[in-house]
Design brief:
The complex is a heterodimer of chains A (281) and B (379).
Chain A (H helix, E strand, L loop, with lengths): L30 H14 L7 E5 L14 E4 L5 H11 L4 E7 H7 L1 H10 L3 E7 L2 E2 L5 E2 L23 H7 L4 E6 L3 H13 L4 E6 L3 H7 L5 H11 L1 E2 L16 E7 L5 H12 L6
Parallel strand pairs in A: 1-2, 1-3, 3-4, 4-8, 7-8, 9-10
Antiparallel strand pairs in A: 5-6, 7-10
Helix pairs in contact in A: 1-6, 3-4
Chain B lengths: L3 E6 H11 L2 E6 L6 H13 L3 E4 L3 H13 L3 E6 L1 H17 L3 E9 L5 E5 L4 H6 L8 E3 L4 H18 L2 E7 H4 L2 E6 L42 E3 L13 H17 L1 H4 L2 E4 L6 E4 L3 H15 L4 E6 L1 E3 L3 H7 L5 E6 L5 H9 L5 E5 L8 H14 L1
Parallel strand pairs in B: 2-3, 2-4, 4-5, 5-8, 7-8, 12-13, 12-15, 15-16
Antiparallel strand pairs in B: 1-9, 5-6, 7-14, 11-13
The chains are: A alpha/beta (281), B alpha/beta (379).
Pfam families (chain A): TPP_enzyme_C (PF02775)
Protein name (chain A): 2-oxoacid:ferredoxin oxidoreductase subunit beta
InterPro entries (chain A): 2-oxoacid:Fd_oxidoreductase, THDP-binding, TPP_enzyme_TPP-bd
Chain lengths: 281, 379
């Protein structure tokens, strides 16, 4: 596994494709903070970027991979976990990270999330949750909270939201955690723990869509939106705090699940080797 | 070593051929009448040092196959019409990103759930046009268990050589037919090695060589390239430039034309002086062969043209076979699909007539012969 820890200071330029800059994310978008936290975690874990594969789906989150100086795959909408499953099984030597979004992972790709969690292949999945379909112009997603305005909920959303972490945990993920972009150091630490976890690790990153979602719902500019994460999110110790209207799940942060489960790739290789008579089962 | 003679069901032959061709990754989802391929692969691949994984649906199956191929493995999935429909978006992704893979589609009655245990040839146009946009298409249509074996191996060779998905189309009848098969010795199985990029700097992942096929970067070899289904430049990164988009798309589509001679495969029977030409593929071609043989015995000048490669459609070979024809008959187990392509190639004359069967039964030599006699009378 990933035992090495780098002692050299982290320089983000070592991990970016600088010729792809400037990036296309809107001013104030939280995805850049998530990208930086991921790269810093990759650095801390001592992962060789030649052996790092980043698999993305479609949407704003889907564009994050293209900026990373690694083996990057921009796949189809909702399917990055399925592509990553084939890649990781074919190439167990690679560190495979999936970067997905709330629409990509919970709506069109929901089936792949629950089965990736169940199968427990060694993939780290970062779901950047900005509560909206930003790329297509701000339509409601499975994490758009009740009463929020989007371009497809012009009178306010009325559907319940998904608690992605509870879903991943219930489906059997060995590692589940959530963090906000406001807490960038904690986010980096959480992602590093997820990368070190041998098995499927799910991290929900509470990002923010200032330009479309924030504007439409009068949530202020980027600083106000990021600062509001403090009031909206509760550390685990305060889970009994009363609900607030836009955070019906009283979203806690931190690590919710960390358990040792048989990793699928190792399990398959041992199973196949036994069938070939190479080792004792 | 010489070929070993054995008896196999079509789906079993397909799985054995895939393993012989070096396929070491299979992802699939159960569906009649293709499931035996997955079952055989689940047995064979762990023993061959490969990976078998049953995915949560067909979309995930083809995605995992593409992922494994991106990682460097020869990879395949197998399905039937409903699953083939679900795979179309990702087949387009594989074509756009130029990822070799093989898709077996065992055709059954459709549309929708249709007749799962009965044969059809209703996916021949889906194999051509199922994915949105224009893409390079290669599809092979074996007509016997022996040919399932050889065409599955050829599918891997073409996929690796051209860096494109290749579909093998056959139907429920030959999938579950038990026939004798000559298994060639391993040294006789020829599958092209994928053209991998070497470690040189300044690598452009979509800059093609003269053969129209770019070298592929293997993760871990130091190239760290970007792969995207967005229209991309030679660099692999997305482009909005009309000039670049046009150049890249024309190269992508044109690589099939550059390799046409190696892709096309056809068979003819008694076409030299044929007045009525039968154009048939897959299981239907076997009924047509019997019909043509019996018609010739009765003095009716019938001939058979059989595309083994259905896409790209072998236009010039068909025109040659149809030189003396005064009528063309296209029997197929659908309401008239490949007949549209035959009509396009032949033009206004001679007349091209469909003969469709959509009741879940294979075509009989008798009904094909009767239709030929009818055309011969009026031709």
């Amino acid at each position: 596994m990933l035992e090495a820890t780098r002692t050299l200071p982290f320089d983000i330029k070592d991990y970016l494709r600088l010729d792809t800059m400037p990036h296309f994310m809107c001013p104030g978008c939280g995805h850049g903070i998530a990208l930086r936290a991921l790269l810093a975690a990759v650095h801390d874990c001592g992962i060789d970027k030649d052996r790092l594969a980043v698999v993305c789906g479609i949407g704003c989150s889907g564009r994050v991979g293209g900026y990373i100086d690694a083996n990057t795959f921009h796949t189809t909408h909702g399917r990055p976990l399925a592509f990553a499953t084939g890649l990781k099984l074919a190439r167990p030597d690679l560190t495979v990270v999936v970067v997905t979004g709330d629409g990509d992972c919970l709506a069109i790709g929901g089936n792949h999330l629950i089965h990736a969690a169940r199968r427990n292949l060694d993939i780290t999945c970062l779901m950047l949750n900005n509560e909206v379909y930003g790329m297509t112009g701000g339509q409601a997603s499975p994490t758009t909270a009740a009463t929020r305005l989007t371009s497809t909920t012009p009178s306010g959303a009325i559907e319940p939201v998904f608690d992605a972490c509870a879903l991943a945990a219930a489906a059997g993920a060995g590692f589940v955690g959530r963090e906000v972009t406001r807490q960038a150091p904690a986010l980096k630490t959480l992602i590093a723990r997820a990368l070190r976890h041998p098995g499927f690790a799910f991290v929900e990153v509470m990002s923010d869509c200032t330009e479309i979602y924030g504007r439409k719902n009068d949530l202020g500019e980027a600083p106000e939106m990021i600062l509001s994460q403090k009031a909206d999110m509760r550390p685990e110790a305060r889970r009994d705090a009363p609900d607030q209207p836009f955070r019906p799940n009283a979203l806690p942060t931190g690590v919710f699940v960390e358990r040792d489960l048989p990793e699928y790739g190792e399990r398959w290789r041992a199973h196949a080797a036994a069938l070939r008579g190479e080792t004792e089962r | 070593m010489t070929a070993r003679l054995t008896a196999l069901h079509g789906n079993h032959a397909c799985a054995l051929a895939a393993v012989a061709a070096g396929c070491r990754f299979f992802a699939g989802y159960p569906i009649t009448p293709s499931s035996e391929i997955a079952e055989h692969m689940s047995h064979a691949l762990p023993r061959a040092g490969g990976v078998f994984v049953q995915m949560e649906d067909e979309i995930a199956s083809i995605a995992a196959v593409i992922g494994a191929s991106l990682g460097g493995m020869r990879a395949m999935t197998a399905t039937s019409g409903p699953g083939f429909s679900l795979m179309q978006e990702n087949i387009g992704y594989a074509a756009m990103t130029e990822v070799p893979c093989v898709v077996i589609d065992v055709m059954r009655g459709g549309p929708s759930t249709g007749m799962p245990t009965r044969p059809a040839q209703g996916d021949v146009m889906q194999a051509r046009f199922g994915s949105h946009g224009d893409r390079p298409v290669v599809a092979l249509a074996p007509a016997s268990v022996q040919e399932i074996y050889t065409e599955t191996i050829r599918a891997f060779d073409l996929a690796e050589r051209l860096r494109t998905p290749v579909t093998v189309l056959y139907d429920q009848v030959i999938a579950q037919l038990l026939e004798s098969v000559a298994i060639p010795p391993p040294e006789a199985v020829k599958v092209a090695a994928r053209k991998w990029a070497n470690g040189a700097g300044g690598f452009q992942p979509y800059a093609a060589d003269d053969d129209g096929v770019p070298a592929m970067a293997r993760p871990g070899d130091g190239h760290r390239v970007h792969t995207t289904g967005l229209t991309h430049a030679e660099s692999g990164f997305p482009t909005q430039s009309p000039a670049v988009a046009d150049r890249m798309m024309r190269r992508l589509l044109g690589k099939i034309d550059l390799h046409l001679a190696g892709i096309e495969k056809t068979e003819t029977l008694a076409t030299e002086d044929a007045e009525v030409l039968v154009v048939a593929y897959g299981i239907t071609a076997r009924a047509a062969r019997r019909a043509v043989t019996e018609l010739r015995r009765d003095g009716v000048k019938a001939g058979l043209f059989r595309p083994v490669t259905v896409w790209p459609f072998p236009e010039r070979a068909l025109l040659r076979a149809a030189e003396t024809a005064r009528a063309v008959l296209v029997p197929e187990m659908n309401a008239g699909q490949l007949v549209l392509e035959v009509q396009r190639v032949i033009g206004r004359a001679p007349p091209v007539r469909p003969l469709g069967r959509i009741d879940g039964e294979p075509m009989t030599p008798g009904e094909i012969a009767a239709a030929v006699r009818e055309l011969a009378r009026h031709a």
